Amino acid sequence: MTETDSNAYDVVVLGAGPVGEIVAERTRAAGLSTAVVESELVGGECSYWACMPSKALLRPVIARADARKVPGLSQAVQGPLDTAAVLAHRDDKTSHWQDDGQVDWLDGIGADLYRGQGRISAPRTVTVTGPDGAAHTLTARHAVAVATGSRALLPDLPGLDAVRPWTSREATSAKAAPGRLIVVGGGVVATEMATAWQALGSQVTLLVRGKGLLNRMEPFAGELVQEALTEAGADVRTGTSVKSVTRENGTVVAITDTGDRIEADEILFATGRAPRTDDIGLDTVGLEPGSWLPVDDSLRVEGFDWLYGVGDVNHRALLTHQGKYQARIAGAAIAARAAGDSLTEAGPWGAHAATADHHAVPQVVFADPEAAAVGLSLAEAEQAGHRVRAVDVEFTSVAGAGLYADGYRGRARMIVDLEDEILRGVTFVGPGVGELIHSATVAVAGQVPIGRLWHAVPSYPTVSEVWLRLLEAYRG
After folding, report:
1. Which class is domain 160-271?
2. 4-43+99-151+275-356 — its CATH code?
3. 369-475 — its CATH code?
4. Are the C-beta atoms of 137 and 281 separated by less than 8 Å?
5. Is the pTM of this model over 0.70?
6. Which Pfam families match (predicted)?
7. What is the edge-to-edge ordering of all strands in the sheet holding 242-248?
8. 3-class secondary structure, 229
C-alpha cells in the first residue's frame, strides 16, 4: 500500500497554467503559503498548445501579408514562407514542450509544486496522485482555487476516434504542414489555424456550420476575414456540417450534409471547448463532474466559502488575458478574506471584483486581416436593452492606414449608448488593429464620456486616427 503524506497550506491551486500561476503569485505576495498541482506541463495550454505556438505560427504569415502591400518591399517577399523555419521558431517559443523555466518561476515565488492528478477529496482538501503512484493530501486553510482550464470539444460522430482528428493541440504542435487540411468550425481557432496552415503550404477547406466566420463579433469582421481567406486560396464553405468522417488508406474522407465528399490528409475540429473539471473530485462536494463552475465576481464558486473557479472553468470568457485578470481578482479576494478584510468597500471597481467580465472583455483574432473587439456588439447591446447607435468608418478615410499598406482594407465600429454617451463596444478589422484594441478597452472599461474622448487626440499619421473619424462621424 502506498503511503500518503499530508501537508497544510493556506491556498491550494489546481492547475499551473497562466491562470493558476497568477493565483499562486498573488497569494504568495500576500504572505500566504501556496501549493500548486499540475497533471501536465507547468505553463498550461496557453504556453504549449494555444496562445504562444499559434501566434508564433501566425506572426510570419501576417508580417508577409502586410509587407506585400508596401511599395518597395512587396517584390522582396513574393516567395513562399520557409515552413521549416517557422515551425522551428514555434518550437523555441514553446520551449520545446519543456517546462523547466516555468517550474523555476514557481519555485522563485515560493510556491510548492505537486505533479500529478489532483482531486478534491473533502472540503478544503485535495489529494494528489503522482506519476509514480505516490499520494499527497493537501489541506487548505483558506481556499482551493480550480484553474484547470478547458479542452477541445469533439462532435459526436461515429468512429471519430479511429480517424485520429486534430484538435487545437495537434494544429499548433504539428511537425509538418499537411498537403490538404479540412478545418471544421468558424470561430477563432478555426479561423486562425486556417489562416496559418494555408500560408504554410496546406490546401485548406474550411467547413462552417453557420452563415459566416466569427459569429460572436460584428458581422463585417467575419466577412472581411472570409474574403481574405478565399483570396489566399482557401475553400470556405458556409452553412455546411460534417455528417461522417473516415480514414481510408491514410486519407481522411469527410461527407457533408449536402452529400459532398472531401478528402484530406488531416482534419481539424475547432467546434468548441469543455471544462477540464471531469476528474477533479467535484462530486465529493456536491458538484457535477465535468461542469462549468458558477462563480460570483470575486471568483468564489456559488454556495462555497472556500472554493474558487478561475479562468476557463467558469465559462465567463475563455481567453488567457481575461483568465489572468480573474486570477488577480481571485488572489486579492482570497488574501483579503484570509486577513478578515471587507471586500465591499471599494465597490464594483475595487481589486476584488471581476467587473470587466460583464461588459469590457477584449479579444484579438490574429487572422489576415486582424479582427479585434471589446464590449458589446450592436446586436448584444440592443438585446441587453440599451438605446444605442452604431457608428461605422472605413479605414480608407484614415491617412495612417494608407501609409501602413497600399489598398488597406478595414472597418471600425463603435457602439454609443445614447443615454449616457459612453461606448458600449468597439470593433476594428484591418491589418495591425490588434494594437488598437487596448485604447478601446480603456474607453469601454472606464466608461469615458464621448465629450472626453473628443479631447484624446490621436497622433498623425497613425492608424489610430480612426478614433477621430469615428467621433467625427458620431457628431456629424
Report:
1. alpha beta
2. 3.50.50.60
3. 3.30.390.30
4. no
5. yes
6. Pyr_redox_2, Pyr_redox_dim
7. 242-248, 251-256, 261-264
8. helix
